[in-house]
């Protein structure tokens, strides 16, 4: 393991992140927010020179990264980045916002969770609102993918970092033969979707500021908004349907988008097992939600259909935008939507959750066990998109699922030990571990009411969810640090 060399790479990544912190400086200048102009400038200086110090005073040796080094850089980067990212929020001196709150908001942004402790968003400075949205956009895919594209130019192999960061069980696949080109391809798709989303938001009635900010959080499947009412602030139906389309697109595997883009093939989406399951889950959830509301409300109009579709897509993809408080839906609907969020979006997307492909593999393996019970001598092969699945991948999925359940239970007990109600604790852990954001009970709108111990536990949950549990937990095992 080359810990001094990984510190050097961390310094490079911090310097890149500091450049992104210059953008809110421009926003603060445009809106004449002098105090925040100083805060963001100071944050840039602290972050840049901290990264420069790590780079200059670490080893000068250049060598290829190993898989262990990729894990260390990824974990260090997300935790250290969150610490530096919290500085402008803390310096903003918002009433009753402690450093733990600032750290919670920073981690929530970078992990694209969208859980917030801030109240009165409509009155907050524009530069700070923009910064929150930018954190989500960078956290969605931008920083690590950009780093993977840039590191090879510095003589550093990036495949180990790509494997550590990429969500889902199929981490070894690349879109192009060279990892740098893969990162550039993902970045190109991500950026193009963001620009298209912002333009459509603007066309349908958002201000330029809101359009850019909400495009950041939509494509990143983040859920932060510049208004306390989230999407309920915007009455235009065109804005809602634009959000629905781009949340669906961002919840898909970006490799499918790249293939459609480069080879001009649209129907290849439907050959992908995960894509079919992804849309099937959303359509089934929407049908159940609509029928339940029709039965409960005894009237059903176009507006109700639109609201139902928006909530289902937002919660299913773990975006977390709200056009109404989903915790107030009748009967079993809030729990059902939260349960669907546990499955989440597709692997290779910016979404959270267990991932659809893992749920599909678990379902197929469960079906295979039924077949073996009926036909004891049968040899059952699990297939995805008509191709046999490696037993090693099936084992890794079961290992992930068992660890996921264990982590969830431990975090649930931690929150219950802090005096939170069961529904609040259960939904808060589920919403943060799956990077969803809004929960039920006391956290249906905001996490401000929780105590600091609960917030710190949920910060850990958000990091676990973003790094898919193993990437973070593995650095705590003694065997990992042995040569």
Explain how this protein is built.
With 483 residues, the protein is mostly helical. Helices cover 63% and strands 1% of the residues. It contains 20 helices and 2 strands. It has helices at residues 3-20, 23-30, 34-56, 67-85, 87-91, 99-110, 126-150, 159-165, 179-203, 208-219, 237-250, 254-263, 273-297, 302-316, 333-343, 356-374, 391-416, 422-433, 452-466, 470-473; strands spanning 383-384, 387-388. Strands 1-2 form a two-stranded antiparallel sheet. Helix 7 (126-150) packs antiparallel against helix 9 and helix 18 runs parallel beside helix 19 (452-466). The longest helix is centred in the C-terminal third of the chain and has 26 residues, at 391-416. 49% of the residues are buried. Residues 153-160 have low confidence and may be disordered.
